[in-house]
Amino acid sequence: MIVVQRTDGSLANYDRLGCVVAFAMLLTMATMYFINRYIIQSTRSETSSGTSSAATA
Asked: Please, which residues have CB within 8 angstroms of residue 52's CB and are 6 or more apart in sequence?
């Protein structure tokens, strides 16, 4: 567990939780960036080769 409650009622390692959340957000943003780039490149290659699903419908 990251955050624990001490016997006196205070929370321990609460600042570490902020770091974990910030790191998870940055990791998610980086992953979404690369996924978006991949999709854009895939879409461009489909439209340039004429194999778009809209053109075949």
From this structure: 46
Across 36-46, b (16+ Cβ under 10 Å) vs e yields eeeeeeeeeee
Contacts of 26 (CB under 8 A, 6+ apart): none
C-alpha distances in Å from residue 16, one per residue of 10, 22, 25, 33: 15, 10, 14, 26
Token pair in block for residue 27 = 């990791």
pLDDT in tens, 17-46: 999 999 999 999 999 999 999 999 999 888
What ranges do the domains of the chain cover?
Answer: 21-47
Q: CA 57 to CA 18: how far, in whole Å? A: 49
Both structure tokens of 22: 């910030």
